[in-house]
Amino acid sequence: MAVAEYGTTNITFQSTDTWANNVDGNDNISVSGSNGWARDIVDDPGANNISVSGELRGNKLFYGNVVTKTNITAQVTLPYTSGTVNASSTLAIKNNSFNDNTTVRLVASPTYPYIFQKWTSDSGGSTSISTDATLNLTATDHTSVTNFYCWSTSPASNNASLGYHASDAATACGASGTTVYWNADDGSNFDDAFAFYTDATLTTTVSAGKYSDGTSVLTVDSSGVITSGTIC
Known about the structure:
single chain; mainly beta; 6-stranded mixed beta sheet; 3 helices; 14 strands
C-alpha cells in the first residue's frame, strides 16, 4: 500500500492532498475547525484540539485504491466498513492514520459460481500480492503499491451427457446427447448440482427445461438453476 510518512521536518500542508479526502490544495486547510485537514483522519482529534505536531509528526497514513475485476466485489472492513465495491469498479481509501489504526483490511467476494483467485498490484494480473481473499495491510506492507486489484476465476467443473426436452420429462428421460457442466464443489453427480452450464468455465447457463440421465429427471429454470427432481 502507499504510505505517506512524516518525520519532524517534512511536514507541509500541501502533502495532505495525497492521503486526505477533505483537502484541496492550499485553499481548504486550517489548523482547527470542523473542515480542518486533521479531521479527515479516522481518529478525529476534535475541532479545537488539532496541531501539526500532534497529528502529522511521526505519523504514517495509508492511501490507495481497491480495484475490482469482473465477477468479484470487495469491501473495506477495517478500520471502518465501506459500502460494497461492485465488480469492475474502484474505491479510493484514504484518511487512515497508522498511529491510530494499525490495519487496513480488504475483503474480496467472488460472484457465484466464480471463486477468488488473487490480489495483484497491476491491472494485467501478473504481479501477485496474495492468494487470500482477506488482505491485511499494515504500515510496512506493500508500501509502493497504490492500486490493489482483486481477481476471480472459474471453478473446476464436472460434466455429464444428459437427455433434454424443453417441457416433457418423459421425452427427456429417453433422450441423450446434451452435455451440461456444473461446479465441481457441488458434488460429482449431476443431481448434486446447483445449476447447469453449457461450458466448462461455467459462463453460460443452459436453457430451461427437463434434463435426465435416464433414471432421474431434473427441472431447470431460466437461470440454469435446478428447482426440482424426480425419477423417470
